[in-house]
Design a protein that fits this description.
alpha+beta; 5-stranded antiparallel sheet; two-stranded antiparallel ribbon; 2 helices; 20% helix; elongated
Length: 132
């Protein structure tokens, strides 16, 4: 039974914060094509890449992680380290507090067109949005 649970436990820990960022809520940021969970605390930041990418390398992923960290923290990235899955950064906030600014909600929307009474070619368009 324990061997059955092991794969699920390993997958569940994929975007878990490191000990220094435990208790900090992540902010999900997409810098195409990478998706990061970013946590900021005390002049430090951690970006965990949570999407699958073919042959990820630190070279192209590091600048994307820096952009994601700067968006969440409002500070400049001074130094980056880590690997292509988890990137840690030292921040230069110019003496400001590193509390992340509020992030506007993100939505996924679809436009639906359906026929309507009122003559030939009449239609109604509906926009349906779900928070992501």
């Amino acid at each position: 039974m324990r061997y059955v649970l092991l794969p699920f436990l390993l997958v569940a820990a994929c975007n878990t914060a490191s000990p220094g960022f435990r208790g900090v809520a992540p902010v999900r940021v997409t810098v195409a094509p990478s998706v990061f969970d970013v946590r900021v605390k005390d002049g430090q930041a951690e970006a965990i890449r949570i999407n699958a990418e073919y042959a990820p390398r630190m070279g192209p992923i590091a600048p994307r992680a820096a952009i994601a960290i700067e968006q969440v923290s409002g500070c400049k990235v001074r130094r980056l380290g880590g690997d292509q899955a988890m990137i840690r950064a030292s921040l230069n906030c110019g003496g400001r507090n590193t509390a992340p600014p509020p992030v506007p909600p993100s939505y996924s929307c679809a436009v639906l067109t359906r026929p309507a009474s009122g003559g030939a070619g009449a239609s109604i368009r509906e926009i349906i949005c779900d928070p992501v």
